[in-house]
Amino acid sequence: MSDEAVVTMTGVAKRFGGVVALAGVDFSVRAGEVHALLGENGAGKSTLINVLSGVITDYEGTVAVDGSPVRFAGPAAAQAAGIATIHQELDLVPGLSVAENLVLGREPRTRLRTVDRRAMLRTAREQLGRLGADLDPRRLLGSLRVGEQQLVEIAKALLLDARVLIMDEPTAALADAEVRRLFATIAGLRREGVGVVYISHRMEEIEQIADRATVLRNGSVAGTVRPGETDRGRIISLMVGRSAESLFDVAAAPDGPADREPLLEVDALSVRPKTVRPGRSEPTGVTLTVGAGEIVGLAGLMGAGRTELLETLFGAGSPGRRSGTVRLGGQPYAPRNPRAALRSGVGFVPEDRRRSALVLAHPTGRSIALAALGSLSTLGVVRRGRERAAVRGKMAELAIKAASAAAPVGSLSGGNQQKVIFARQLLVRPRLLLLDEPTRGVDIGAKAEIYRLLHRLAADGMGILLASSELPELLGVCDRVVVLRRGAVAADLTAADSTAEDILAAAMGVAVAGKDSR
Predict the structure, then answer these.
(1) Please, what's the largest Cα pairwise distance for the chain?
(2) Please, which domain of life does this record's source organism belong to (predicted)?
């Protein structure tokens, strides 16, 4: 690692109306260094990297590359200076192939100026191979799962031969094996002298790969530390302004009766889709229950079928022939679409909030009220006063940080966008809540808030089915963990009596001694 900074940011400040996003931030990246950027959602991380990557051009302060001040006119100018960014929300085109996405805007040409598809496929295979990603470059991007799309985004950034690579939550949707490949790639980039700005809420990752970590809080630098040499509690305290003990003092879900009244009963549910979509694992004979007041986790490796099961239960799954039975509150339940699911008292928080749940230009308040407009209307006319009161109540209850209810939901931080989706679902007062990676890309403090919320909802009798890739989350929040493998149930485990190793073994098809494995 060089002592000379490739990029230096000095006194960078930015306001959005009356909201201070950055207040005189100093930050630098050296050649061959991994510099982590930490902080709660809304702390200013995304704003800072948007300045560095040329997305935000009207700011105070200076940015220098190799000691020379620069002011990028846009992202293309930043890329030309050797700064590439992998954003938390993927910047890909679902209707194009993997290869076309990788070279978009930089397509290789033949002598006749047509796109050289052979060269394009060759380049794509080389870059995907560099990451160890076993993907067909001819596949449509939209047919890939979120984790696979993340690998494509990383490969695309590496094609720029960047001197500084910004990674915003790059492992949020990756399986453990893919994370190891990514870390090996980062190690190779460091040897080549590439500086990496690494944003993640996973402390174990920061401690493993980062040389330095700068912590932002409320738009300012709270401190810069060396992760491997600094107590984790100290770092968390810098992030949130309070002790780690108080942050994770999440009240456990109250003990309910061992034989909770069944709320959701799924028996041998299978889906045979009309059109087989690559990468999807439809339910194959799934049997499980969720009791009233119970939090049940869904675990499994990537492609195990967690998302497909939740989508099917919400009426948003693949069209096709279904077999088996589902009962909700003792009554047959087979929603034809999400609207029918909502009417039955089933809410859903999807994995990809931007693609599946939000219209970023819509006002925050309208985004919250969207699913409950029927209950906020009289004779088909929305009662604005009733809507405003409902929105204010949910924003206060979930501590949603926004300039106002009229602010575009796209202007909110990732964690607050996630809270907006929760608020929308809770406004319809569901009895069953389906959650797909509900804390993906959410900071530690917001995670604790979500866990408290889930326990409170369960205490009020709501049933919760929660899919997560984070094993500590499943074991710490859920009463039981149902492990899926290739669309089928591999095990049904009691969280208090199980370990992360038990879940992984079941997910990989290894029998777990003394456990309910299938």
Answers:
(1) 74
(2) Bacteria
Residues 437, 443, 445, 446: is their CA dihedral positive or negative?
Answer: negative
Count of Cβ atoms closer than 10 Å to residue 19 Cβ = 14
Q: Of 166, 169, 49, whose CA–CA distance to 442 is shortest?
A: 169
Neighbours of 130 (CB within 10 A): 16
Q: Are 33 and 211 in contact (CB under 8 A)?
A: yes
Token pair 């074991």 in the structure block, residue: 475
Question: Comparing C-alpha atoms, which of 412, 373, 375, 410 is closest to residue 395?
Answer: 412
Cα-based distances in Å from 349 to 280, 415, 428, 453: 19, 13, 13, 14
Q: How far, in Å, CA of 54 to CA of 22, rounded?
A: 16
Contacts of 137 by beta carbon, 8 Å cutoff, 6+ apart: 97, 98, 99, 102, 121, 124, 125, 128
∠ CA 454-416-143, rounded to 5°: 85
CA distances from 476 to 251, 293, 296, 398 (A): 11, 16, 11, 21
Domains and CATH numbers, the chain: 5-246 (3.40.50.300), 250-345+430-518 (3.40.50.300), 356-429 (no CATH)
For residues 342 and 202, give the distance between their C-alpha atoms in angstroms, rounded to a whole number: 33
Positive/negative CA dihedral, 175, 178, 180, 185: negative
> What strand order describes the sheet that includes 480-485?
346-349, 432-436, 463-467, 295-299, 480-485, 488-494
Contact 414, 39 (CB under 8 A): no
Q: What is the pLDDT of residues 281-320, one digit of tens each?
A: 899 999 999 999 999 999 987 778 999 999 999 999 888 8
pLDDT in tens, 122-152: 999 998 887 777 889 999 999 987 778 878 8
Nearest residue to 489 via CA among 283, 347, 318 = 283
- Residue 274 phi/psi, 5-degree rounding, is -65, -40
Measure the CA–CA gap between 119 and 126, rounded to whole angstroms.
11
Q: What angle do CA 440, 446, 449 make, to 5 degrees?
A: 120
Rg of the Cα atoms in the chain: 24
Residues 360 and 408: beta-carbon distance below 8 Å: yes
Residues 6 or more apart whose Cβ sits within 8 Å of residue 510? none
